[in-house]
Specification:
2 copies of one chain form a homodimer.
Chain A: E1 2-3, H1 5-12, H2 16-24, E2 32-33, E3 39-42, H3 43-57, H4 62-73, H5 79-119
Antiparallel strand pairs in A: 1-3, 2-3
The structure holds a DNA duplex (30 and 30 nucleotides).
Chain lengths: 133, 133
DNA sequence: AGTTGACCTGGAGTGCACTCCAGGTCGTAG
DNA sequence: CTACGACCTGGAGTGCACTCCAGGTCAACT
């Protein structure tokens, strides 16, 4: 199957402009073109875009995604380096999850404080709650 | 206790420039000044900076942090709105954690693929592994 | 008295990841 | 046959969150 840029955008969740942008910066190999010169994305293109958006979600900078994309073009010889990139990204994602978990705990604590303030709102002297909030 | 801007930067993990920047954009109330006009951050200032950096870690945009900071200046009457902001942020953090967890699973899957490629490297026809990688 | 180093100000510059625009080409529907 | 909508290109513009800079003040050390 092949997809127009609008369809590829819909399926990937990226904007049309972003698809062309990714192509320009070599994140994405130029897709096939139809008879009229319009882009015709393949399923492989879409799969790659899907993976790219996952990498983006993990916070990988475009620079690194470009490196990964470029390695991919160099075939099996680059598999070791590609794996290393993914392992490093895995590490950074796990770290980020832990960090966010810590933030979640702090938010819960703060929210609980506010809930208490709400419950005691009649007995609080103004300004007092500022110390912890 | 009070702290020079350099010390406040060290303790908050923010740069000196960022501290002045946060003050300019009203994320941070102007700290006290010493006799020579230099900033003297209080423990309260540092605590607030600590919380701000947590909010930043959660991905809260500066715009929202400014709103929270501004509400804080309006005392107890704004507690409800502040709590709502935190609850919303809590929701978005939990969502983000789930999303990252999904990415982690995909990374694990890919990494495992590469590990298999490594193990079978002698029996692989070139290009074959590209289909899944 | 002079030099150093930390700090001050207002404003300009940076890097990232898009996002938008003007002006043009196609293929199909009315 | 012309009007429309979807697509094309190269290039400029945007928003965010800093980050850097020039030129200046001040207290302390030598």
């Amino acid at each position: 199957m092949s997809y127009s840029i609008a369809e590829a955008a819909r399926r990937s969740g990226l904007s049309i402009d972003t698809l062309r942008y990714y192509e320009r910066i070599k994140l994405l190999d130029p897709p096939a073109r139809d008879a009229a010169g319009r882009r015709a994305y393949s399923d492989d293109d879409l799969n790659w875009l899907g993976f790219l958006t996952k990498l983006r979600t993990t916070g990988m900078p475009i620079k690194s995604m470009r490196e990964y994309a470029s390695l991919r073009r160099h075939g099996v010889a680059s598999a070791g380096r590609r794996k290393a990139l993914l392992v490093e990204q895995r590490r950074s994602v796990a770290e980020r999850i832990a960090e966010l978990q810590g933030c979640l705990d702090i938010l819960d604590y703060k929210i609980d404080n506010y809930a208490q303030v709400e419950r005691n709102v009649l007995g609080v002297e103004p300004g007092r709650e500022e110390i912890s909030a």
